[in-house]
Write a structure and sequence with these properties.
This protein is an alpha+beta fold. It has 21 helices and 30 strands. The strands form seven sheets. Strands 12-11-16-15-14-13 form a six-stranded antiparallel beta sheet. Strands 2-1-5-4-3 form a five-stranded antiparallel beta sheet. A five-stranded antiparallel beta sheet has the order 7-6-10-9-8.
């Protein structure tokens, strides 16, 4: 039998070996014909040499083929001697997998045909033989040998391969038959049983399983609905007569085989004491089927979910808000595609916004899988989260607004400043004078808009003072009456003995005007605007609209209208910048955000109540200022500008601002030294012969900031006066400025007169 493999492809090999010989023979014959028929001696000589050369090559090739054939015969003889009588099936294949030799055991066991491949011989032996053989052959090609155990229908097989020569491979297949999976033994079992490999391919089913299923399945997913099987749990089988419930028992066999048995479902009753304990646990608990139907909920869960005595609702009927179907999340837990975790869900059966933290865990009771839900009221946590998100959003918008305002202030300083310089060189009769005035006025309007942005971001410069609300509203009444027009009626009601507050009068008037204008626009057909003041004492902190008002005495200003009102879904957005319900061109959306920023920066609170169709009420809370009356500073005194004397060191990183400020000061007679940054200024001050009377410096600059370099410079020049200029608020500088003597603050944008008056005032 060992010699039968020797002739598997002998005919094919002989044809392959004869092809080059036949080609050379034809070439030799053609050369001989040319040598006989050629008339020229040189041609005859060349053709004769060629013919002899071809004949020599033919003999050489035949000799080499004979030597190779003898080596092949010797190799096959050695193989026959080595494995010919081996009880284990052995094959020799070429690099393409064609069988060149098979011993008697292999021929008897697999009955491979001459010229067949090893893959085709093993197709019925185990799953995916091509990938296994390809993997092992590559391993043998690199390491010289390879070995792997594979699961078969009768047990498992150990495949080993060795590389022989350049293109041949010797394969050996050792089969191990498992006694536990013996077909005849398993067929006598009354329990349904099957064997499968790790890939889910069914290798064997006993008679009881075949009767239950009505045939022999090919894969486990044709038998069980759930791809993940757990030993000891109840499963549902797609039987030939309908679904069948059973308890699954799985045993791991050799070679990564799985032996699965189906046991009958036990009939049992749940222990009453366990039910009682579950009912009275103070933690809300609920159990669901794998499909999501509620099985049972204890008293705490029924209370928090507002459950009645109806049939068990589905999981998706109780909860929502995951961003995807909640049933998919429950299915992930049942099938163990995702670990147990908590999610924040909204309770659907409860009125209002009630949020629950729901934790799901897969459980097994009496062999049946299910899901246990642990509930926790998270409404307060969700509200806190919303407050934090709103706070973060407002803070981000405020930072953006403050940054934009700073850059615009630099631009507006340069625009308005150079416009001032041009106006000094033009008389009123000049044709260009009116155009320059228009530029100056529009620059001031832009500065007012930037001031609103700073107000919202709470970064504007406020000048708080002790105010009597009755005096403020009385002074403002005439202007407010002009703002509302003829269709709207104003009513002012003052409380007696209200007490003083501390705020910036100009900014407080701006807040009241914004609120009155919004109230007027909310009443296109006319109506009444009421402004009331009231004293309020809070004995406990008051929490409202994501803010907490501390206990204390407050002055309350209410601005109420009888207009169209504000829908509830817009109440949380009205203080956001650029949010407006007006048409394009009718408003910027900055009025209420400006009011919000001013009130907050003044230490107060602002709230709004509105009923669509009935009107809106804004309430402003300001703490009562209990300090002594302040002596008004004489800030109104007029500085008479005259020709200046002194040396000014101007430090400004914005070139247009620096150019304007330098020209303005030189026009007043000052000697101006310019520096682009702090490092350049400090380098100039290293000259001891340089005399400087005043530093005019920007606060925020690349590299070292204004206060930092001024501190260093004042160590050697302690008597130099300082003017800080910035597009940000003075508050960001106040603590640092307080530690720097002889320093004042000039906010951007400033005019030519503002700058020169400030410098002259410092040097006087």
């Amino acid at each position: 039998m060992g010699g039968s493999g020797a002739g598997v492809s002998s005919a094919f090999d002989r044809r392959q070996k004869l092809q080059p010989v036949l080609v050379l023979l034809a070439a030799a014959a053609a050369s001989a014909v040319v040598a006989v028929l050629a008339s020229q001696a040189t041609v005859r000589e060349a053709a004769t040499i060629a013919a002899l050369t071809f004949v020599f090559l033919i003999f050489a090739i035949r000799l080499l083929q004979r030597i190779a054939r003898r080596a092949e015969v010797q190799r096959r003889a050695n193989l026959t001697t080595l494995v010919g009588q081996d009880a284990t099936p052995c094959f020799m294949t070429d690099r393409l997998g064609q069988i060149q030799y098979q011993n008697a055991s292999a021929e008897t066991r697999f009955q491979a045909q001459p010229g067949a491949t090893l893959v085709s011989a093993l197709t019925q032996h185990f799953a995916s033989p091509s990938s296994v053989l390809y993997r092992l052959q590559n391993r043998a090609g690199h390491a010289g040998a390879g070995r792997e155990d594979v699961v078969t229908r009768r047990g498992h097989t150990r495949l080993s391969v060795h590389k022989i020569g350049d293109d041949n491979y010797l394969w050996r297949l050792e089969e191990f038959q498992d006694r536990g999976s013996n077909a005849r033994g398993a067929d006598t079992l009354s329990l349904p049983m099957l064997t499968a490999n790790k890939a889910g391919v069914v290798l064997y089913t006993n008679e009881a399983m075949r009767r239950l299923l009505g045939g022999r399945p090919k894969r486990l997913d044709r038998v069980f609905a759930n791809p993940i099987l757990h030993s000891g749990e109840e499963v549902q089988i797609a039987g030939v007569d309908g679904p069948v419930r059973a308890i699954l028992a799985e045993v791991e066999g050799p070679g990564e085989r799985r032996e699965i048995y189906l046991l009958p479902v036990p009939s049992g009753v749940q222990v009453p004491s366990a039910m009682a304990d579950f009912e009275h646990v103070p933690v809300p608990l609920a159990k669901f089927t794998p499909e999501g139907r509620l099985i049972i909920a204890n008293a705490a869960a029924r209370h928090i979910l507002h459950l009645g005595d109806d049939a068990g609702p589905m999981f998706h009927d109780l909860f929502e808000g995951l961003g995807r179907p909640v049933s998919d999340w429950l299915d992930d837990i049942v099938s163990e595609r995702s670990p147990s975790r908590s999610e924040m869900l909204r309770a659907r059966l409860v009125e209002g916004e009630v949020f629950l933290q729901v934790t799901l865990r897969r459980i097994v009771e009496a062999g049946r899988p299910g899901v246990l839900a642990v509930l926790q009221d998270a409404t307060a946590l969700k509200t806190l989260e919303a407050q934090f998100v709103q706070s973060q959003k407002m803070q981000a918008i405020g930072q953006l607004a403050g940054g934009v305002a700073h850059d615009f202030n630099n631009l507006l300083t340069a625009i308005a400043g150079h416009c001032d310089l041009l106006l000094l060189r033009h008389e009123r009769e000049d044709p260009d004078y009116a155009d320059l005035v228009q530029i100056h006025q529009n620059a001031n309007r832009a500065a007012a808009l930037v001031s609103q942005l700073l107000a919202f971001s709470r970064k504007q410069t406020l000048k708080p003072e002790r105010l009597d609300l009755e005096d403020v509203l009385s002074d403002l009444a005439h202007l407010l009456n002009r703002l509302v027009g003829e269709k709207v009626r104003m009513q002012l009601n003052h409380a007696q003995g209200l007490g003083a507050i501390r705020a910036d009068k100009r900014q407080l008037e701006q807040v009241l005007m914004n609120l009155v204008v919004n109230a007027r626009d909310a009443m296109p057909g006319g109506g009444t605007i009421r402004i009331d003041t009231e004293g309020l004492s809070l004995t406990e902190p008051m929490s409202r609209d994501r803010a907490t008002v501390p206990a204390g005495d407050y002055a309350v200003i209410r601005v109420a209208d009888t207009g169209i009102g504000i829908p509830s879904d817009r109440l949380q957005k009205i203080f956001e910048p650029f949010f407006t319900t007006k048409k394009v061109g009718e408003g910027t959306g900055l009025g209420l955000s400006t009011a919000y920023g001013i009130v907050k920066q003044s230490g107060g609170f602002i709230f709004v109540d509105s009923t669509p169709g009935a009107g809106t009420v804004f309430q402003l809370y300001f703490p009562i200022h209990m300090g002594p009356a302040e002596v008004a500073e004489d800030v109104v005194k007029k500085v008479v500008l005259k020709q200046g004397e002194g040396v000014v060191l101007l430090v400004e990183d914005e070139a247009p601002v620096r150019a304007f400020a330098s020209r303005a000061l030189r026009m007043r007679g000052y000697t101006v030294l310019e520096a682009e940054n702090a490092e350049e200024a400090l380098k100039a001050l290293e000259d001891p012969s340089l005399t400087v009377d005043i530093f005019v410096t920007d606060v925020v600059m690349p590299g070292m900031d204004g206060p930092s370099w001024v501190k260093l410079a004042l160590e050697d020049r302690p008597h130099v006066k300082v003017i800080f200029v910035s597009g940000y608020a003075e508050d960001s500088l106040s603590e640092t400025q307080a530690r720097i003597p002889n320093s004042v603050f000039l906010p951007k944008p400033f005019s030519l007169g503002d700058l020169t008056a400030m410098v002259q005032g410092q040097l006087q």
